[in-house]
TrEMBL record:
The lineage of its organism: Eukaryota, Metazoa, Ecdysozoa, Arthropoda, Crustacea. Residues 148-294, 975-1053 are annotated as: Disordered. This is Trafficking protein particle complex subunit 9. Residues 1217-1354 form the Trs120/TRAPPC9 fourth Ig-like domain. Keywords: Golgi apparatus. It comes from the Eukaryota.
Length: 1357
């Protein structure tokens, strides 16, 4: 306990502390043998030494067969420099001992040789306390010791000198210090496969040793156990820098080895060795050469080589050297494992020695301490000897012993060794991980910094925390390493060891290295957060280091943080290292190294010096840190004197960090950039950093100003070039086949910016850029012009000043195509704040189209459009229209016709040789042909149009309109339901057009409700209709509707609203060179016709006429114009209608023949199928002409589109039957009065004759008597007033053409009065009802009535 307190409170002198930590250490170094490789003498060049050192460092693994025949893996660590202070800690941890020394020098004289030997011996003395063996490689001497002459022939790559540099054949054995050296290993035949024959064989780390063993010849001066030596080599790739050795397992193929497999040869040389001897003469002339002899005190084995290229067998020499170190180590391990001392010595760390002076070493506690420390050292030797399982056992026993005596320092070393032995077994591939490099290469824009990051490290270790590495069987590991720590226990022991190390102020280096080893294990286990905890402990360990060592320390920490994925933390420490390079206390600041380290920090701060890869939206990285780092780069490059580099970094700062700068910062950085660019400028070319080769990409201001959109302006409509229609018509694209891939392809092509218009050669073309100024001041942009590819294009430069305001500001860039072909617009160039930029559209983030492609065609003629109203005068009143499109506006009343003149003026220098005119409109073709008409032959007769000439086209415009009212226009109380109105619900017209009415029989209307009827002079228009072709009855009923009815109505604005007709006259023309290229230009004139209402048909109906072949179409007409209208509705009749007045006019027309219905009706059995046919028939016979206004403007209206419900079809069509009605033998005709007497039978005979021209099916004949009370009430209940004799309902047989059917019955009246008899004939299927109320004839069926109904006046006797 006393000693522990003494150790904790001790304050040793500085020489007992290790110089600096080894930041490249890992747990596998505990099993390696440390070999120091030094350059001696002054003749050897650093490059030659570097090449040899790299070859030496590849021999990092040698397999040696021990005395029991089992193979031991021996690992070697090579170092160029190793402080003696660190070597003094060899008792504490044996892997810190320098066991071997290899010196490399070159001689040219005896003095050079003496100097090399002296330096070598001094190194041996320096590390004599731990040194086992050494080698001295001397270049410039032949194997016999003579000086190598440069004019001698160099040996070929196939030569194989002896291990000591001697020649093949044995006639000249090599001599060192005058003693002949015997051959160490016997050469085997080339075809031998015996791996134990003594041949140094290169094997991969995965190869397992064979069971066959044979023994090589015993080397001179070695123990008897050396007779069983077997060595297998596994060459690995060393560090490129050469600053550190490696213990990584690797595989080196034979093609990369400079020497053959044989390390020594016998006296029987092969052909390859014979070839090598041609460069070394064995004649008597050798005696005349100067032979150099090493000093007498030089006791080291020397290897002579003329040059480094001649050292083809140096690997085999190193294998033999490593085997010698192993056997010395093995002997020491055996000695320590077998010795039993009564008073074991106390092993101490350098700073502990003074603390044990004067203490009682015979105490029980101190004896345990001595035994525990010796056991711990034995475990170190056992681990180095390739026995990790035994080492774990020794470490465990030593830890138990040291824990009992509270020896925390050595207990921590036991834990560290125990972890190292476990890692050797569990993670054999840990040695494969990339070694740390102090100054990693920079990949600008890519993965910067060290190469050991998570993203690019290839690891074969544990997949998860507790899993074993790939390739290790858990059962085998359990059997062979029972005491091996689990992955979690390894970390716990490392943590406990570090805690114990932290108790000692002089163990800071050991604590640091233990933490680094734990970090490597955690990286292998992929436990990165816990690795960060161990690295944090390293940061807070206080070590006395120089500035250079501190820089190395921060770089090492940065590399480790980079490996665990803490890129920002890695960059932080690398930046700290950079700042240490130029710290104020540094007497020689290295700005170049500071700049290189700052470049390596960019990745961790999410900065890429390539603006195209750097995210400007702030979604990654920390803007404040990024701005600071970039400012430090600017300042560092400025102190370096690199003005161009400084300007480039400042431009990147302004461009990339613009969204994160305040307005004041933007202004300040912009002013600084202008000042720097005024000195050196900044072009759009990359810069190369001197001494590093790092390329700094160009900075193009893609966001200063911000280009919001690019609009390639098409030519004006009048100047647009198009492919001729004839050429397009000839192209055969084949049948249409739908494919989603073709649609995607077309979309992609469109997205690539292929313009659907052409530019014309020689025309001024424009591209509009919507630019936004992000700076808080007016931004001046100079030398702004388009960047194009393809066809020759003259781009004009422009200078713009963008206002300091938000929002896009349009900037127009112009140019002129100089030739035909495909032109590609890829971007624009500009100069802002002294920085020239080539802004490609594909690099602008929000621009989806990388370039725009426009086809440039040959020059074409151009014409100007002039318009004039032909009714107002000649061409003297012509009016020019714009290039884009002409616009001719007319205002006409519905039905009015007007002429208009369109003049084509050729203002180009070439004649117009071809021209075509076409009308385009959204109207249907029929309506278009009614509204617009012109003569194309007239314009073709005026070709060619010479330059300056004119040609005119006369356009006839008719204001077509729908003259049928879409809704009811008059009040219901003033009208009758018998007139047709378009406001009836569609359900009442059985799905017909909205302008069609609902027709019901008179009888139905009386039963469903009484309706008020007009009793004025127009009652004949409103009376019931029987549907017969012959009209008879009273005088009031037979009067023709020759008078008109006037009504003042309230206008419905929706019905009297005008319409607009619009059409475009397309004029395509070509001529000159453009005609030869099959291109043309097109212009257009838009003709807009505002149609105002004039005459409107609000209602329509059909009434029977006096003549059987005619009927009356009764129209309610409304004057919607603002002037009085003179309406001519028949050739001989007209009427004046005031504005807003309505009148009813009857128009007699001929009925439609049945043959017409049969030919044109869509369905002869459906009433609605004949509606359009009958409507066309009526519209063709009725034409309404009118004049209005002060100029008596003429117009005409038609009934196009009028339709009639099925109930009116029988009135419009010719009846298929002829009625013959007699009362008491007297024929009933129009105007005939029928009388009867109460109580006397009145005989009624009805005859039906087939006049349809085809057989008629059976018909249902029905006689119905009723009384009309003239008040809208019809009385059919006459049982008490009359009776009949004979049938009133019967079915006729089928009637042939011209055949007649006659039926007679008697009528007996009981009371006097006026009676009416309705005679109806319909198809037999319609009369199957038993009650009149149910006997309603469907609207789609035919029913022919004798009209007017038969009227009988019955009087008393």
């Amino acid at each position: 306990m006393r000693s522990s307190v003494s150790v904790i409170l001790s304050n040793p002198p500085p020489d007992t502390t290790m110089s600096y930590p080894d930041y490249c250490t890992n747990p596998h170094h505990h099993q390696t043998l440390l070999v120091l490789v030094r350059q001696v003498g002054s003749q050897l060049k650093s490059r030659s030494f570097q090449k040899l050192y790299e070859r030496i460092s590849r021999v990092g693994h040698v397999k040696v067969s021990d005395s029991n025949g089992s193979q031991r893996p021996v690992w070697v660590t090579y170092r160029r420099e190793y402080p003696v202070e660190n070597n003094d800690w060899g008792d504490f941890q044996t892997h810190r001992r320098v066991l071997g020394i290899i010196t490399i020098g070159q001689v040219g004289s005896q003095s050079d040789l003496n100097d090399i030997c002296k330096q070598h011996e001094s190194l041996k003395v320096k590390y004599s306390s731990t040194l086992y063996d050494s080698r001295c490689i001397i270049l410039g001497l032949n194997p016999d010791g003579t000086i190598y002459e440069a004019d001698s022939r160099n040996p070929s790559r196939g030569t194989s000198p002896e291990p000591n540099g001697g020649i093949d054949g044995g006639s000249h054995p090599p001599t060192i210090n005058g003693h002949a050296q015997s051959t160490h290993i016997k050469k085997i035949s080339a075809g031998s496969t015996d791996r134990d024959s003594g041949v140094y064989e290169t094997v991969s780390s995965e190869d397992k040793p064979t069971d066959s063993d044979s023994h090589s010849e015993s080397p001179q001066g070695m123990s008897e156990g050396m007779m069983d030596l077997k060595i297998d080599t596994n060459h690995v790739n060393g560090s490129d820098s050469g600053s550190e050795s490696t213990s990584e397992v690797g595989c080196c193929d034979d093609s990369k080895m400079d020497s053959p497999r044989d390390s020594a040869v016998d006296s029987a040389p092969d052909s390859a060795h014979d070839t090598s001897q041609s460069s070394i003469s064995t004649s008597a002339s050798q005696s005349s050469r100067l032979s150099l002899q090493p000093p007498s005190n030089f006791k080291t084995r020397a290897l002579f080589y003329p040059t480094s290229e001649h050292a083809v067998n140096i690997e085999s020499q190193l294998q033999e050297f490593v085997s010698s170190l192993f056997w010395v180590l093995e002997s020491k391990r055996l000695d320590k494992s077998q010795e039993k001392l009564e008073r074991p010595p106390l092993l101490c760390a350098p700073f502990e020695r003074k603390d044990f002076i004067g203490l009682d070493m015979d105490s029980r506690t101190n004896k345990k301490r001595c035994v525990g420390r010796l056991r711990k050292q034995l475990a170190d030797l056992t681990l180095q000897a390739g026995l990790p399982t035994e080492a774990i056992v020794h470490y465990s026993h030593a830890a138990d012993t040291l824990r009992n005596c509270n020896d925390w320092l050595w207990l921590a070393a036991c834990f560290e060794g125990l972890c190292a032995a476990s890692v050797v077994m569990l993670y054999p591939n840990l040695r494969r991980s990339f070694g740390l490099q102090r100054y990693s290469s920079l990949g600008v824009g890519g993965n910067q910094g060290g190469s050991g990051g998570i993203g690019n490290r290839s690891r074969n270790g544990a997949v998860n925390t507790n899993s074993l590495p790939t390739g290790l069987d858990p059962i085998i590991v359990k059997q062979t390493s029972k005491h091996c720590l689990s992955p979690d226990d390894i970390i716990d022991k490392y943590r406990e060891a570090i805690v114990h190390y932290s108790k000692y102020r002089n163990a800071g280096v050991v604590e640091t290295e233990a933490s680094i080893k734990a970090v490597h294990v955690l990286i292998e286990q992929k436990r990165y957060l816990m690795a960060a905890e161990f690295l944090s402990n390293v940061v807070f360990i206080n070590l006395q280091l120089s500035d250079e060592e501190k820089i190395a320390r921060f770089n090492a920490l940065a590399d480790l943080y980079h490996q665990i994925g803490f890129h920002r933390k890695a960059s932080f420490f690398r930046r700290v290292a950079a700042m240490r390079c130029v710290a104020p206390q540094n007497q020689q600041p290295d700005w170049g190294q500071c700049y290189r380290l700052l470049l390596q920090t960019l990745e961790g701060y999410k900065i890429s010096l390539d603006p195209l890869e750097f995210r400007k939206d702030g979604s990654q990285g920390w803007p404040a840190l990024q701005v600071q780092i970039l400012q430090e780069l600017v300042g560092t490059s400025r102190r370096m004197g690199q003005n161009a580099l400084c300007t480039r970094h400042q431009a990147f700062l302004v461009c990339a960090m613009l969204p994160h700068l305040s307005e004041s910062e933007r202004k300040e950085t912009a002013n600084m950039l202008e000042s720097l660019s005024a000195r050196s400028g900044s072009g759009p070319a990359p810069l190369v950093v001197q001494d590093t080769g790092v390329i700094i990409p160009a900075v193009n201001f893609l966001n200063i100003p911000i280009c919001r959109s690019v609009r390639v302006q098409p030519p004006a409509v009048g100047r647009k070039a198009e492919k001729k229609l004839s050429q397009e018509a000839e192209e055969d694209t084949g049948p249409f086949i739908f494919s989603p891939f073709s649609s995607l392809t077309s979309n992609t092509q469109r997205a690539q910016g292929k313009m659907d218009f052409d530019w014309v050669e020689g025309d001024v073309c424009e591209v509009i850029l919507d630019l936004e100024n992000p700076m808080p001041f007016e931004l001046k942009v100079t030398s702004m012009m388009l960047i194009t590819e393809g066809a020759q294009f003259e781009s004009w430069t422009s200078t713009v000043v963008l206002k300091a305001e938000r929002g896009p500001q349009p900037v127009t860039l112009r140019g002129r195509p100089q030739g035909a072909g495909e032109l590609k617009i890829t971007g624009y160039s500009s100069t802002v704040m002294g920085v020239s930029s080539n802004c490609r559209l594909k690099f602008i983030p929000h621009m989806k189209i990388p370039f725009y492609t426009i086809n440039v065609v040959s020059a074409l003629p151009f014409i100007q459009i002039l318009t004039a109203n032909s009714n107002t005068g000649s061409l003297g009143s012509e009016r020019a229209v714009s290039e884009e499109s002409g616009n001719l506006h007319l205002s006409l009343s519905a039905g009015e016709t007007q002429e208009c003149s369109v003049v084509l003026h050729n203002i180009s220098s070439q004649p117009v040789e071809e021209i075509s005119i076409a009308l385009e409109s959204k109207m249907d073709k029929t309506l278009l042909s009614q509204v617009f008409q012109y003569s194309e032959e007239n314009i073709q007769a005026q070709l060619p149009i010479q330059p300056g000439g004119k040609a005119s086209v006369t356009l006839y415009v008719y204001a077509s309109s729908d003259f049928l009212c879409p809704s009811r226009m008059m009040d219901e109380s003033l009208e009758t339901s018998s007139l047709v109105s378009g406001s009836e619900p569609p359900s009442l017209v059985s799905g017909g057009p909205s302008s069609l009415p609902s027709r019901q029989s008179v009888a139905t209307s009386s039963t469903r409700g009484a309706r008020t009827r007009r009793t004025d002079s127009s009652a004949s228009l409103l009376s019931s209709r029987s549907g017969s072709s012959v009209r008879s009855g009273s005088s009031s009923s037979t009067q023709a509707p020759s008078s008109t009815a006037r009504t003042r109505t309230t206008l419905n604005t929706s019905a009297c609203t005008g319409r607009t007709l619009e059409a475009t006259m397309q004029v395509k023309y070509s001529g000159g060179s453009g005609l030869l290229a099959d291109y043309c230009r097109s212009t257009q004139v838009t003709v807009t016709v505002d149609v105002t209402p004039s005459l409107l048909v609000t209602r329509w109906d059909v009434l029977p006429a006096e003549l059987p072949h005619q009927c009356y179409v009764v129209l309610d007409l409304l004057n919607c114009a603002t002037h009085e209208m003179d309406l001519h509705y028949t050739p001989t009749k007209h009427i004046l209608i005031e504005a807003g007045d309505s009148c009813r006019v009857p128009i007699p027309i001929d009925r439609c023949p049945l043959a017409t219905l049969t030919q044109n009706g869509s369905d002869s059995e459906s009433g609605w199928g004949w509606s359009s046919v009958l409507g066309n028939h009526v519209a063709s016979l009725v034409e309404l002409r009118w004049t209005q206004g002060p100029c008596d403007t003429p117009g005409r209206a038609s009934l196009t589109g009028i339709t009639f419900p099925p109930a009116t079809h029988d009135l419009i069509t010719m009846a298929p039957i002829h009625w013959d009605v007699q009362v008491d033998g007297q024929d009933v005709v129009g105007g005939t009065e029928n009388t009867g007497v109460v109580g006397r039978t009145l005989e009624l005979c009805v005859g039906v004759t087939n006049t349809s021209g085809a057989p008629l099916p059976p018909l249902s004949l029905r006689l119905t008597a009723f009384q009309d009370h003239q008040n809208g009430t019809l009385n059919y209940r006459l049982d008490a007033k009359m009776t009949t004799t004979g049938a009133t309902k019967l079915t006729t047989p089928q009637l042939a053409e011209g055949e007649e059917f006659r039926h007679c019955c008697g009528l007996v009246f009981f009371t006097a009065g006026v009676y009416k008899v309705e005679v109806t004939c319909s198809p037999a299927a319609a009369v199957t009802q038993t009650s009149f109320y149910e006997n309603i004839t469907p609207a789609h069926q035919h029913a022919w009535k004798f009209a007017p109904p038969l009227e009988i006046t019955v009087t008393d006797a």
